[in-house]
Amino acid sequence: MASLVAILDVKGKSLIQRSYKDDVPPSCIERFLPLVLDMEEENVQVTPCFSDDGINYMHIRHNNLYLLALSKRNSNAAEIIFFLHRLCSVLTEYFKELEEESIRDNFVIIYELLDEMMDFGYPQTTESKILQEYITQESHKLELQARPPMAVTNAVSWRSEGIRYRKNEVFLDVVESVNLLVNASGNVIRSEILGAVKMKCYLSGMPELRLGLNDKVMFESTGRAARGKSIEMEDVKFHQCVRLARFENDRTISFIPPDGEFELMSYRLSTPVKPLVWVEASVESHRGSRVEYMVKVRGQFKRRSTANNVEIYVPVPDDADSPKFRAAAGSVVYAPEKSAFVWKIKQLGGGRDYLMRAHFGLPSVRNEELDKRAPISVKFEIPYFTVSGIQVRYLKIVEKSGYQALPWVRYITQNGDDYVLRTISDAKSSSIIAPI
After folding, report:
1. pLDDT for res 222
2. What 3-state class would DSSP assign to 320?
3. Distance, CA of 388 to CA of 270 (rounded, Å)
4. Residues 263, 241: Cα–Cα separation, whole Å
5. Which of 197, 199, 161, 173 is nearest to 399 (CA)?
6. pLDDT per residue over 376-418, tens digit each?
7. Parallel, antiparallel, or unpaired for β 277-286 and 290-299?
8. What pLDDT is stored for residue 143 in this prediction?
9. FRET partner for 179 with CA separation of 20 to 30 A, picked from 110, 113, 253, 287?
10. How many Cα neighbours within 13 Å face the side chain of 198?
11. Would you tell me the crossing angle of helices 107-117 and 77-95 to the nearest 10 degrees?
12. What is the pTM for the complete model shown?
């Protein structure tokens, strides 16, 4: 139970706040940032929840904003932190970007959302699709909707009744992002797979969906033999529509889906991963007057797969100029704002490798150490492929009217936010890099 919810700027000033109880004075908001700064100065880890002088502070950070909840009672901190994340996602869906300017431009609608999403300190409706049905950004629509839709008071609060489509379809995307760190010796020292099952549902009525995956725990608990590879997912998180009791019982993912687009579940795998797109670079400096690079890229995945829109960011000195490039495939551009050049390859086939060469002038003479050079980062997307081997075994759709629906399943593997390789080395001799 929260007594007060506020959104603060990066300086700790309240942009908007809503008090649900009178037991916490608004002046406590001003104490939040000084308390955080004091903890940072004392090298104390700033946790999402902490207490001071009988007041519980619970917060999350988004861009340059703090979303803060205050309570005087022994509240369920996890529930309130989750509510702040839901508030963040709802405001992002309403305004596209949640930042200080969008808060200042939409005071009225944010107050309405705070009143609907929490009542007397207890979280209520947090599904943005339902909220958008009766809290709109066009004032004339507010007069047309005299009362909230039935979904707000139904057991299924994330889906409205009476939805009709001429063509009933379900699109399911299994998207896996690979994060890894490769050291200078070429060894993978950290790797993980972050997966998400995303859906677009265009179904009439109140359909019941059942999704089956090649889940190792399910095969073990039921004593069935897995056909092919099975995977063991960690940190599984579900959309609120999933029946958790059913999943814990027999690992069946059963749910009534929201209408439209949503993320059904996310998971993590800590199994070792080899670099799908391998990049290494040799650098040769010429007495501080110029520097030359030779970069090699290789697709280390199955030959029948193709990586699309590959972008390789190779760091260069801040004052490099006069770039010259030659690439066996794709195109190369200089990005001085990122102190890097970017090698773009439209399609990289599995098992294929390419070379490119770059030449830069250096206006100032200096002797830069190799260790201070930033790592290579890579972006890519491989369709029809999952690095973990996850598979959708079935997707059943049951609705009382008995209509037939078309399920579509797609697999995508892409780079994560932290796919970096420190595979930059000094050229062993000047002969390995031919002049451009």
Report:
1. 63
2. coil
3. 10
4. 10
5. 161
6. 999 999 999 999 999 999 999 999 999 989 899 999 999 999 9
7. antiparallel
8. 40
9. 253
10. 10
11. 140
12. 0.72
Mean per-residue pLDDT over the chain, rounded: 88
Structure confidence at residue 328 as a pLDDT band (50, 70, 90): very high
CB 324 within 8 A of CB 358: yes
Report the chain's terminal Cα–Cα distance, integer Å.
67
Q: Which two tokens stand for residue 406?
A: 């078309």
Alpha-carbon distance 432 to 284, whole Å? 9
Between CA 17 and CA 67 the distance in angstroms is: 10
308: its two tokens:
């699309």
CA–CA dist 83, 118 (Å, integer): 9
> CA dihedral in degrees (236, 240, 244, 250; nearest 10)?
-70
The tokens of 227 are what? 């056909």
pLDDT (tens digit, 9 = 90+) per residue, 111-128? Answer: 999 999 999 888 888 888
- Provide the token pair at 398: 């049951």
Structure tokens at 305: 């797969």
**CATH fold label, 165-436:** Immunoglobulin-like (2.60.40)
Q: Where are the beta strands (DSSP E) in 88-154?
A: 118-119, 122-123
CA atoms within 13 A on the CB side of 382: 26
Provide the pLDDT for residue 226.
56
Residue matched to tokens 């519980």: 56
Segments of the chain assigned to CATH 2.60.40.1170: 165-436
| Whether domain 4-126 has CATH 3.30.450.60 | yes
pLDDT, position 221: 65
Burial class of residue 193, CB neighbours in 10 A (0-12, 13-18, 19+): buried
Task: Convert the pLDDT of each residue in 124-160 to its tens digit.
Answer: 888 888 888 888 765 333 343 445 555 555 568 788 8
Q: Is the dihedral of CA 270, 273, 276, 281 positive or negative?
A: positive
Compute the distance between CA of residue 267 and CA of residue 367 in angstroms, rounded to an integer: 46
267 DSSP β-pair partners: 195
